[in-house]
Amino acid sequence: MDEIKLMIQKAREAQAYYEANFDQEAVDKIVKIVTKTVYDHAEELAKLAVEETKMGVYEHKVAKNRNKSKGVYWNLRDKKSVGILGIDEKTGMIEIAKPMGVVAGVTPMTNPVVTPMSKIAFALKTRNAIIISPHPKSKECSSLTVKYILEALKPMNIPDGLVQIVAEPTLDKTQELMRECDVIVATGGMPMVKQAYSSGKPSYGVGAGNVQVILDRNIDYYAAAEKVVTGRSFDNGIICTGEQSFSYPEEMHDVVMDAFTKAGAYVCNKEEREKVISAIFEDGHTARDVVGQFPAYIAKKAGISIPEGTRVIVVESNGKFGVEDPISKEKMCPVMGAFPYKTFEDALTIAETNLRYEGNGHSAAIHSNNQGNIIKAGTTLTVSRLVVNAVSATTAGGAMQNGLAVTNTLGCGSWGNNSLSENFTYKHLMNVTRVAPLKLTLPIPSDEEIWK
């Protein structure tokens, strides 16, 4: 029997035992252990992730490991996922939670620690088994993450095979895993997500991110710039929720650029603009060698000089947007576009056009004191989440204070060719049986009452 089929068989046996022998209390203890393990090993796992993938920022990965593990646990700690979920008082309908079976968790090299952690937590919360298939270029740190989790879970006597990882991942193995499992959670590049959707199995995939930020009038541009630069520089720009471009009132150009400069950004002149664009894009896509690299590396490649300690490189638009200006695209490095607007409606048009060029359905952000404009942006933009007056990079994936489920898998809805337009979490790995008796005491309205 080949490797994947053997892993699937072990997972099925383990899942059946887990479902039959672990109650809600035990499941909740297990989820706490899974998340706390990554919290406790945050520094070591962050160091290995940077060394192995050669991208991102160590300190940011430490923060991500700690904050995501805390956030995932805090979200899940009081949620029912075993047995009877509830009874409808009006109809008497009973909802009963059931596992889906064996989960295939495909994870990316951009988040090689927290993505396996969260998928394992979601799967075990709902009494599923899970097999992680990591990106080949992050297999060591992902494998160590799973190893630490399994060691920590030993006192809980979980069955062997409940949590597994493909030690030497390949495209063929991942494809076979997706064919043999019961449900797929695919986080990574669009080709992998498309393969998940074409596997014949229920799949949750993600879309490309290209977070557009709108700076409204009558705000503190210095405070907003600090948040935007913090988001764009986080983990050197490899976070899908990270700010990518911002639009601002044209009459505030000098104030806005001063605010960004004081926040640690370097604003390119027209000649430098073209050099940076040529350096970060190849064949219309982010060049592989700049992904997750520091601004100093990008500046050196572009042949420009920037101040030491620059956090982000800002490239102003060519007066156009969308397909007519390449800086409108997603940039997997700490470079961002800047677009002036005349009216707030123009800002919405810029953001929406850039999203439709790339990143449709994912996320956007707005810094505003005008609730009407915030609602207008939420109504107009084709995104699954709109972050308000906060750092998108660290809050669009869920935060304790914003109501979004903490996750590393963000659905983009039909706009992004996804089946999900919310943050993926435990409930998406749970089947529900609805026991529906007729409640004969409920009055049935007459035809006259229905149609009047």
Give a brief rundown of this model.
This protein is of the alpha/beta class and 452 residues long. The chain contains 16 helices and 17 strands. The protein has helices at 3-21, 24-40, 42-53, 58-76, 114-125, 139-153, 171-180, 190-197, 221-233, 253-262, 270-280, 295-302, 344-357, 371-380, 392-395, 447-451; strands at residues 83-87, 94-99, 102-106, 129-133, 163-165, 183-186, 203-204, 211-215, 243-249, 265-267, 281-282, 285-286, 312-316, 335-341, 361-367, 383-388, 430-435.
Task: Give your account of this protein's structure.
It is a single chain. This protein has 452 residues and is α/β, with parallel strands linked by helices. It has 2 domains: 3-205 and 420-435, 3-Layer(aba) Sandwich (Aldehyde Dehydrogenase, Chain A, domain 1); 211-405, Aldehyde Dehydrogenase, Chain A, domain 2. Helices cover 41% and strands 18% of the residues. The chain has 16 helices and 17 strands. A 7-stranded parallel β-sheet has the order 10-13-14-9-8-15-16, with helices on both faces. Strand 1 and strand 2 (94-99) form a beta hairpin. Helix 4 packs parallel to helix 5. The model has no long low-confidence stretch (mean pLDDT 95).
What does the oligomeric state look like here?
single chain
- pLDDT averaged residue by residue: 95
- The radius of gyration computed from the alpha-carbon positions, rounded to a whole number of angstroms, is 23 Å
Which runs of at least 5 residues are low in confidence (pLDDT < 50)? none
Domain module tally: 2
Find the CATH topology of the largest domain.
Aldehyde Dehydrogenase, Chain A, domain 1
Largest β-sheet summary: 7 strands, parallel
Secondary structure tally: strands: 17
Q: Please tally the helical runs, counting DSSP H or I stretches of 4 or more residues.
A: 16
Q: Given the helix and strand composition, which structural class is it?
A: alpha/beta
Termini separation: 66 Å
- What helical percentage do the residues reach? 40-55%
Annotated CATH homologous superfamily of the largest domain: Aldehyde Dehydrogenase, Chain A, domain 1
So what's the overall shape? Answer: globular
- Biggest sheet: strands side by side, in what order? 10-13-14-9-8-15-16
Looking at the overall shape, the CATH architecture of the largest domain is 3-Layer(aba) Sandwich
CATH domain class of the largest domain: Alpha Beta
- Work out the strand percent: 15-25%
